[in-house]
Each structure stands twice: as structure tokens, then as C-alpha cells.
Amino acid sequence: MLRISLLRLLGRTGLSRGLCLQDSRLRHYSSCPLGARDDAQDARAYFTTPIFYVNAAPHIGHLYSALLADALCRYRRLRVPSAAATRFSTGTDEHGLKIQQAAATAGLAPAELCDQVSAQFQQLFREASISSTDFIRTTEARHRVAVQHFWGVLKARGLLYKGLYEGWYCASDECFLPEAKVTRQPGPSGDLCPVSLESGHPVSWTKEENYIFRLSQFREPLQRWLRGDPRAITPEPFHHAVLQWLEEELPDLSVSRRSSHLHWGIPVPGDDSQTIYVWLDALVNYLTVIGYPNAEFKSWWPTTSHIIGKDILKFHAIYWPALLLGAGMSPPHRIYVHSHWTVCGQKMSKSLGNVVDPRSCLDRYTVDGFRYFLLRQGVPHWDCDYYDEKVVKLLDSELADALGGLLNRCTAKRINPSGTYPAFCTTCFPSEPGLVGPSVRAQAEDYALVSAVATLPKQVADHYDNFQIYKALEAVSSCVRQTNGFVQRHAPWKLNWQSPVDAPWLGTVLHVALECLRVFGTLLQPVTPSLADKLLSRLGVSATERGLGELYFLPRFHGHPCPFEGRRLGSETGLLFPRLDQSRAWLLKAHRT
């Protein structure tokens, strides 16, 4: 009867997925490359952020894009440790009318403005531990070579022609708009003014002779690409939105401006009267970084994953794939799209004075703390809201109290006086649930914990593959809570190491909790690299034991030796994460003691 009730409580699915996992299956889940679990282990991967416009200082939306890409890249490196197998680029977009105008307003030459603001992005990304392998600036000579070569390929393939373009142009968005995408809104004087239907930015009527790309030829090829690969654009609502756009007419695209109007850019090869359209210029950066037009780029391009904000989806999901197809190349492998951050329910705006400085947030909440908040709270398919109280509450609850408190409990001298990874007792915690006997101490909830943590790496892998990093962190947080419940339930501080009855179970409780912490620390490395390093170092986990290939949870439970059993813990590292709300810190301390 006891065994039957235990099986009912645990559920047969949980048992089969967790407790019965074999060593080979665990390693399979842990070590495969992102997005291609069955690909060869040395397959390449190339992640990109957008290149960020330098007309203003960076804000948390820019940092969020970079963090998403960074987490995907770091997770991929955990699966495929070879440094040569993964590339990650970010950078700044430094050409265009908007830069030209911003520089004039600031009384600077465009190059001076670009240098100043690009340096701000580079400093932010260094401080935020963005692990990019390349920072590209579109004013670099290598990029000019790539853009002009790409232009030459399009021209040689008969896809560029010179014609009179007449229509609306939005300088803020650096894009041309058909009449159907323009509306009228009251301006400062109360008069109706034309604005972009999508962004709300002002537009002006433009009439000039430009080079035009035969975009209309690519409507059906783009539809075939997207219908043939439902994961080409993720999350799905954005994939659906692009297909809806492609149901509409796809007019040819102006890809140059008069140099007399726009001089800050890359000249059209052989025609100095024209400057290459800033979006064509900017998009080619993804090729520049991997060596285009040299042959080396060909081995990287098919593995490309773009991480972008939803406001630039059309440029990346329609214009860019069409340009690539026109140049004889494939569209990007994946386009991961995220939504925006609001502040206390309002859109960030200079006029409202609510633009959040990401560097001040890194100082206030720590680098790992703010990384965790943005990636834990950011949901790609809808806008997310920022306010200070939310950050403090989340970080104190999940990092300081739940995770930090668990580590402190399990490594405290009072409970773990030997400072080691204690032995696991198989008679106290047998691998077969439902067994009874004088030495058996494990309860049904304990088997549920082992099942949950055993399947956690697989869950996290699936969430990363689906661009749901927030769900991966939610899953880790849930298991941290379960582990705290396990420790609280068995109260090791009430057990006695000198007792022959208590000691085996006390060691087992600590062993299981430390094994859970090892899994959590390993899986948190892509999001909180310094905090994870601190946690794993405290557990005595060496640098070569931190990859997903080494993440075999609780091997003693499955009858295999544990390399950590009996090993000394690492040196004391202090609080894993200090509480931000110190007004409640003393209450928690009093409760724990």
C-alpha cells in the first residue's frame, strides 16, 4: 500500500522522466548545440544583436537585446565548449540622416558623435559582461568594402535600377513608407501632420532619383521560406505577422539617397551622387563580421541567429532576406524577436524624462542582479514593465533569500562542520521509491525533487531552443524552492553528526542539496556568470566540471560513483547575493537563527 500511494503521489510520468534517466540520456540532453540537438558537436553557431544607432545614449532596451544574445551564446558554449565553434557580434550603426542631424544639433562632426556614443555602448557592454567576439562599427573600412561588394553583386544580378522615387520618408525610422502606412495626427500647433502609422514618427514627402531594388520579385520566395520553416522567426506571433505583411503588395525598395541630401554614409560604387541606403548598409554588418566577401564567411552564414527588437522586424524579416536571396545567399537560420520595455507602464521617452540608464542599474543592483532581472522578467512576445521595486523584490526573493540562503545553510560550519561534500546513503534514500525499512528516510516529496532536478537540464535546453530564457529561469527558480522545502522538511540543523542513526541521513540531505545547487549553478552560468562562478567555486566544482556535458545529477542515486563525494568544499566566499532591501534583512536573519 505504501508503494502504491507513493507512485500515485509522484505520478508515473515524473518517475519515468526523472528517476529512470540513464547516464547517456542525461549527457545527451546536456551537451548538444543550441537549436540543433542532433547536429555534430563541432557545428558552428553565429549570434548577432542589432547594431545600435548612435543618435542617443544606450538604454535598457539596448542592453536587453545584448543580454538575450549573450545568454544564448553562453548557453551554446556550455553545450559546445570549443571557443572556435561560436561567434557573437554586436556593434553600432553610424551612418544615415538621423546621425547627420543629431551631430549638427550637438555641434559636432558626425564622426565625433559616432566615436562618443559608440564608446558608451562598448563601455556598457563591458560592464554588463557581454561576451561578444566582435564589436562592429559601420564606419570601419572593412565594412565599407563589404557593403560596396554586396552592392556590386546585386547590380551584376540585374536587381538594381535607377528610377524616380516619390513618396513618404521617415527620417526617425530611416525608411520609406507607402501611403497606406501613413496617417495624420495633430502636431504641436494643432494642425494635422503626416506620421508613420507604425511608429508615430513624422514623415515628409520625398521626390528624387535613386537606385531601386527589385523587392517585388521576392514576395513568393519569402513566403516559401517562412512557410517551409515555421521556426525561422521566433516567437510564433512575429512569424505570423511577417506572413501577413507578405499578403500585401511588396513594392520595390529605394536603396540610395542623393549625396547632396545624405552625405554621411557609404557612396554608391561608381556614382558619387548617391549614398547607399542606411538600412542596406547596416544589415550587411552581419556579413562583414564573418569575413565577407572572403570565402570564410560561407562556413558561418548558414548558422546565423539574429536577435532583434520587434520595431525592426520588417527590415530583418523582409528586406534583409530578400537582399540575401538576391545576392545568391540563404536567409538567416533564425530570427529571434523580442518586445520592448516600458517604465511604470509608460513608453520610455526623453520628453517624459523616464529613460532608464542601464549603467546606473548595474551599479545599483549589481551586474548579475540586473542581468537576472531583465532575462527573468523579459517575455519576448509582449512588452515588459520596469520599476525599481519590482527589481528589488525579485532579486531579494530569488537570488538573496532562496538561492543564497540555500547555499549558506548547506555550507555552514554548524551543519557541515567538515566542510565537505558528504556521502550519500543509498539505504536512507533508495533509488526505488516506496521501499520501507528502518533506515529509509526519504519521503514521496523527496523523490519528486530528484525527478524535478533530474529533468531540469532538459527543460532548460528546450526553453533556450524556443527563445524562452525567462521560462528557463522560472524552471530553475521553481527547483530552488523545492530544494529549500526539502532542506526545511528534514531540518539538518536538528540532526546530530555523532548519532549513528542521524549521521547517514544528515549527510544524504546535504549531499542531495549540494547536488541540486551544483545543477543550479551550472544552468545559471549564461545569465549570472559571476554569481554562478561564486556558487560553483564554493562547492569545489573546478572549471573543467562546469559544462553541460559534465552535468550528471546525483549519480550515487543511480548506483554510480560521484566525483564530488568526500571532496572539500571551496573557500568561504561570503554572501552569494546581498539583499537589496536591508530593512527586512534583520528579520530574515532572526527567523533563520
Automatic annotation (TrEMBL):
It is found in: Mitochondrion matrix. Belongs to the class-I aminoacyl-tRNA synthetase family. It is an enzyme of class 6 (ligase). Gene3D superfamilies: 2.170.220.10, HUPs, Isoleucyl-tRNA Synthetase, Domain 1. One of its GO terms (molecular function) is ATP binding. This is Methionine--tRNA ligase, mitochondrial. One of its GO terms (cellular component) is mitochondrial matrix. One of its GO terms (biological process) is methionyl-tRNA aminoacylation. Keywords: Aminoacyl-tRNA synthetase, ATP-binding, Ligase, Mitochondrion, Nucleotide-binding, Protein biosynthesis, Transit peptide. PANTHER family: METHIONINE--TRNA LIGASE, MITOCHONDRIAL (PTHR43326:SF1), METHIONYL-TRNA SYNTHETASE (PTHR43326). Signal peptide: none annotated. Pfam families: Anticodon_3 (PF19303), tRNA-synt_1g (PF09334). The keyword Mitochondrion applies. Residues 444-542 form the Methionyl-tRNA synthetase anticodon-binding domain. InterPro entries: Anticodon_Met, Met-tRNA_synth, Met-tRNA_synth_2, Methionyl/Leucyl_tRNA_Synth, MetRS_core, Rossmann-like_a/b/a_fold, tRNAsynth_Ia_anticodon-bd. It comes from Equus asinus (Donkey). CDD domains: Anticodon_Ia_Met (cd07957), MetRS_core (cd00814). Residues 46-410 form the Methionyl/Leucyl tRNA synthetase domain. The gene is MARS2. Its EC number is 6.1.1.10. It catalyses: tRNA(Met) + L-methionine + ATP = L-methionyl-tRNA(Met) + AMP + diphosphate.
